[in-house]
Amino acid sequence: MSTGPGLESLVNQTISIITNDGRIIVGTLRGFDQATNIILDESHERVYSTREGVQQLALGLYIIRGDNISVVGELDEELDLVNDLSKIKAHPLTPVIH
């Protein structure tokens, strides 16, 4: 499995990961390996709800197995700071079905 040229450029950057079970985890990419296992620092999970704003659950230093990752994306920190997550309501993502 190739990790592609993209992950190297994201080390020490804030990224957002969507897992196969529909979780959204945001943190600073500290490292990864050939199986795309990812190490995040200062991470948190964003939990979406249709009833209340986005909750952020602190995770700290966190490892995500590569086979549980659906999407990895760079997070624009300036744009993210402008968003008031307490006012955003949305349905949680459903798990990926293979």
UniProtKB/TrEMBL annotation:
Q: Please give the superkingdom of this protein's source.
A: Eukaryota
User: Known InterPro entries for this protein?
Assistant: Lsm8, PTHR15588, Sm, Sm_dom_euk/arc
For this protein, the record's CDD domains field holds: LSm8 (cd01727)
List the SMART domains: Sm
Limits of the Sm domain: 2-78
User: What GO CC annotations are associated with the protein?
Assistant: precatalytic spliceosome; U4/U6 x U5 tri-snRNP complex; U6 snRNP
Recorded hits in Pfam families, A to Z, give: LSM
GO molecular function terms attached to this record: mRNA binding
Compartments, record wording:
Nucleus
What biological-process GO terms show up in the record? Answer: mRNA splicing, via spliceosome
Q: Which UniProt keywords apply?
A: Acetylation, mRNA processing, mRNA splicing, Nucleus, Ribonucleoprotein, RNA-binding, Spliceosome
Its subunit composition reads: LSm subunits form a heteromer with a doughnut shape. Component of the precatalytic spliceosome (spliceosome B complex). Component of the U4/U6-U5 tri-snRNP complex, a building block of the precatalytic spliceosome (spliceosome B complex). The U4/U6-U5 tri-snRNP complex is composed of the U4, U6 and U5 snRNAs and at least PRPF3, PRPF4, PRPF6, PRPF8, PRPF31, SNRNP200, TXNL4A, SNRNP40, SNRPB, SNRPD1, SNRPD2, SNRPD3, SNRPE, SNRPF, SNRPG, DDX23, CD2BP2, PPIH, SNU13, EFTUD2, SART1 and USP39, plus LSM2, LSM3, LSM4, LSM5, LSM6, LSM7 and LSM8.
Q: What does this protein do?
A: Plays role in pre-mRNA splicing as component of the U4/U6-U5 tri-snRNP complex that is involved in spliceosome assembly, and as component of the precatalytic spliceosome (spliceosome B complex). The heptameric LSM2-8 complex binds specifically to the 3'-terminal U-tract of U6 snRNA.
* Family per record: Belongs to the snRNP Sm proteins family.
Q: What is this protein called?
A: U6 snRNA-associated Sm-like protein LSm8
- Species source reads Zingiber officinale
